[in-house]
Structure formats: structure tokens, C-alpha cells
Amino acid sequence: MKYQSQKVAYAYFLCALGLFAIQVLGGLLAGWIYVAPNFLSELMPFNVVRMLHTNALVVWLLLGFFGGAYFLLPEESEREIYSVNLAYLQLAILVVGTLGAVVTYVFNLFPGNWMFGMQGREFIEQPTWVKLGILVAALIFLFNVTMTVLAGRKTAISNVLLVGLWLLCLLWVFAFINPNNLSLDKMYWWFVIHLWVEATWELVMAAILAFLLLKLTGVDREVVEKWLYVIVATALFSGILGTGHHFYWIGTPGYWQWIGSIFSTFEVIPFFLMMSFAFVMVWKGRRNHPNKAALLWSLGSSTVAFFGAGVWGFLHTLHGVNFYSHGTQITAAHGHLAFFGAYVALNLAMFAYAIPMLRQKAPYNQVLNMASFWLMTGGMAFMTFVLTFAGTIQTHMQRVLGEDFMSVQEGLSLFYIMRFGSGLAVAIGALLFIYSMLVVRKREVIAPGNLAAAED
Amino acid sequence: MAEILTKSRARNIFYGGSIFFVVIFVLLTVQSHRFIVKTSTAGMELSEAVVLGKHVWERNSCINCHTIHGEGAYFAPEVGNVMTRWDVQDEPEEAYEMLDGWMKSQPSGVEGRRQMPFFDLTEEETRGLAEFLRWADQTDTQGWPPNDAG
């Protein structure tokens, strides 16, 4: 840690880790309701549990991105953050908003109220006051990081990161637009959902990945940054029109079936490039950085993102396939692996790299940390396979043979039991990761080999 | 990577290409907006009851169990075609009675079966919800879903 103001990232990462724990425990509960449907059915129905699961995920990923930006921008810009106080104020607003959203979902105190009531559009269920809080926090953030970057050194990494963060904050405006026409509602809803995870977040991911690889491998910046521009170019060229793969069956025109199929096929490319980028940099790199866990998470993130977002996305993106698989467990399989690989693992890579520095400790607990990687990744992979099988059967029984939804679901119970088991592995892995970050050992379990000391 | 692709060229391709695709996307969105309003959803009036029903659908977070036009959670059945499945798509009164009967019998309490919560709706709200589901059902969704099972 070279700059004092990088310390704010630590507060962001701690809040993110707390929500991460809530997210996986919520997921575990939702998985259990699939196995034992009467569990808590009157107290905490499935829809409430699912809102906690998805909302906690999105908020902690965003906190991770914000914290990551506050950590890496001083190093890239070679100056302190414009205002540390604004950064803490932003975090406070986000934390209050998150708590407000949780209380709203669980207790539903103002049903139907425009300002205080839960809004009930998937993933953006937050009441309006929380949405406004997020908007204010986003504006504070943009002001703060932009002032930091403008005053300091401009690099491709900070440039791409800022473009991604600006665009994702601007797209948040569409969260306030809710047309009465359901099909219009859906079309503009995707401006937030798709253009976040399949466009702007990819820019943030690529920039953070580039920063980590630059630090961990010591490869020449010129090489890293050229890769970065090529990756983000392919991400936006495919991802913007790739939105079309959500416009097949919601009342939008039929030409989206071709545009969506063609461009979302290209969406595999940026993820393939990110995976190649990570491995090529490690092979080329001469630096033997002591933080092996951060390297494992970086490589793992780009690899699992390629399979989850790339391969599993392509699996059901062609409109001829999607006509049958749309809205089945196939989608759930893809969603879980894609989010884990691309955004969860990448954030954890950043945490694994930055938290030891922020605490000014050597990166101990590498063994536990790496064990948590394999537990989570193994669990997630198994969950993806199980849900893919369940989804294939569901597609055939329900969409081809036309059997009733509930009777098909009852036939899938074995898969849901296995999914709960894999979710348990993920949850244990997540708690292990948090433990390995927060509880510092006095010495390593396994003595490290001959390491060339890295300068940062 | 090839020498011809310098960092600044890669950057210019990124900015130029992205703006190009944004422009195309915006144009197609404008066309799609018109298509939705004038063609694909125009078969039934977007009445006050339909709008009320949409808000009932939203404020009770129905989408976090059900799907509508295939989007939502995969815990409970598709409702974008539920009125067709119940064979009441063209009968507003029967659609309301069917839905009202269903809503009032929840939760079923059957052991080992997924439970739908009880929602305390007024008659106006339930009527709105039925109209909203009929309105969604008449949307031209390019032939999706493949069959009545949704």
C-alpha cells in the first residue's frame, strides 16, 4: 500500500464480505426450500429469500468494484484519492440503503407505497428511496474517482475502469423507468440488467484483472494495456447488440432473433480473450509474487467466467435452442456459474490481493484461502452440472412433451437435493474465505519456497 | 499481438466501434418501442385495470417465484400464458373468478409441495390482476411458449 487513502477500500471490502456471507446463506436457504418446500413457507416465502439472495449479491459485487476502484486508482494515478470523506459518505449511504432494502423485503411495512414500498421488478425491487440513495452514492463516487484520475497519471487501466463505472452508473437511471406496458417495461429493464453484466461490468472486470496481472506477473504495462483495449472492444461490440438475446419472446420484433443469436455468439470472445490474457501474462511474467492465492483467484476467475458466461451462455443463446430452454433451470445453471466466475471470483481475487496489504500483513493463510477457492469452484461447477441436467430434462418434459410444470418439477427432486449439497460446499468455502482474510496467522502452515521478493 | 495493432490504435477501435454499435442499438430500440406499442401489444386496451394489475403483480414480488414471458424465478409456473392454460383468455369474468378462487385457496399447506403465500387482495385488485394476465397473454411473443404448459 503506497497511498494512505487506499485504506478506504478496506471498509468497502469488509461490508462486501458481510453481504457475501448473507448472500450464500440466503442461497442455501433457497436451495433448502427446493428440497423441503414447507420450510418457513409462511414466515419467509421463497420470493423474499430469493430477493435477499440476488440483491445481496449485486450490492456486494458493486461494493467490491467501488472498493477495488478506490484501491487501484491511487496506484494508477499516482496520487491520493480526491476525498476520503466522500468515499466514506458514499459507503454509509449504500449501507443504510441496503439495510433499508432488507427491512422492506422481510417486513413489507409500506406495501404499494411508491417511495417506501418494495417495487417488485426482478433484481431492482428496492423501494424508490433506496434507488435514489444508490443514485446519490453513484454520483459521489463518479465525482470522487474522476477528480482523482484527472489530477493524476492517466493509464489505460484507469481509463477503461472509469468508462465502465460511468456507464454503469448512468444506466442505473433506467431503474426508475417503469412503463405501464409490460413489454416496454421488460425492454428497458434489460438496459440495466444486460448492459450491466454483459457490457459495462465486463469493462470493470477486465480493468481490475489487468491491474492484478500487472502487479502479480510484472509483465510490461504496454503489453497489458493493449490486451485490455482489445478485450473491452470485443466485449462492447458483441455485448451491446447481444442484448437482442433477451428480446426474442417479450413482444419485441422478430429480427432480434437473428441479431441476438449472431452477436451473443460473439460474446464468448471477450471471455476467451480474458482467459488467454491471464494465462499468457503468467507465462510471460518473470515476477514470482508471494501472493499465490490472489493469482489462483485471478486465473480461476477468468477461466470459470469463460465457461460460465461464455460456454454456458452460448449453450442456450441461439434462438432455435432458446425457444425451448428459455426460463428453465438451464438459465439458472448459466446464471450461477457466470456470476461466480466473472464477478464473484474476480472480486475475491482483488480482496485476496489487497486485504493483506491494507492490513499491512504478509499474505498468510494462503492454504486456507486456496482451499476455499477449490471448495467454492468445485461446488459451483457441480451445481452447474446438476442444474444443467435438471434443465435439460425440464426442457424436454415441459417444452417438448407439454407436461405440467409442477409434475415435471417433482420429477427433478433428486437434482435439487444434489444442488443443495453443492451449495453447502460453496457456503462453507465462502465462510472459509472470509475467515482466511480476517483471522491472521502468526506463520505459514507450509513454508514458502524460494521467492524473489516483489516490490509491491 | 501484431506490431500493426498499437495501443493507441486498439483504443481508437474500442471507442469508435462502441459508438457505432450504440447508435445502431438506439435506432433498433426506437423501432422496437413503436412495434410494441402499435403492433405486438395492441390487441387489447392497456386499461386502468391492467395497470392496477401490473402494480399488484409488482408490489407482491410475484416475479421472484413465477416467470412471465419466461423471465423471473423458476420456482413456480409461467404466468404469461396462464389464462390460455386455464382456457379463460377471452372471458374476463371467468378469468377473474378462476384467479380469485386460486388466490383464496393459498397456501395449500400440502406437505412436500411448494407453497404459494396468501395475498390479501381486494376484489378490484384481483380483477386488475386477471386483466393484466389476460393483457400479457395476448401479447405477440413470436409464438413463445412452445405449448400451453408454459
Automatic annotation (TrEMBL), chain A:
It comes from the Bacteria. One of its GO terms (biological process) is respiratory electron transport chain. It catalyses: nitrous oxide + 2 Fe(III)-[cytochrome c] + H2O = 2 nitric oxide + 2 Fe(II)-[cytochrome c] + 2 H(+). Its EC number is 1.7.2.5. GO terms for molecular function: cytochrome-c oxidase activity; heme binding; metal ion binding; nitric oxide reductase activity. It comes from Parasedimentitalea huanghaiensis. It is a multi-pass membrane protein. It is found in: Cell membrane. Component of the anaerobic respiratory chain that transforms nitrate to dinitrogen (denitrification). NorB is the catalytic subunit of the enzyme complex. Shows proton pump activity across the membrane in denitrifying bacterial cells. The mononitrogen reduction is probably coupled to electron transport phosphorylation. Belongs to the heme-copper respiratory oxidase family. The lineage of its organism: Bacteria, Pseudomonadati, Pseudomonadota, Alphaproteobacteria, Rhodobacterales. One of its GO terms (cellular component) is plasma membrane. This is Nitric oxide reductase subunit B.
UniProtKB/TrEMBL annotation, chain B:
Pfam families: Cytochrom_C. The keyword Transmembrane applies. GO terms for molecular function: electron transfer activity; heme binding; metal ion binding. The chain crosses the membrane at residues 12-30. InterPro entries: Cyt_c-like_dom (IPR009056), Cyt_c-like_dom_sf (IPR036909). Keywords: Heme, Iron, Membrane, Metal-binding, Transmembrane, Transmembrane helix. Coiled coil: none annotated. Residues 48-137 form the Cytochrome c domain. This is C-type cytochrome.
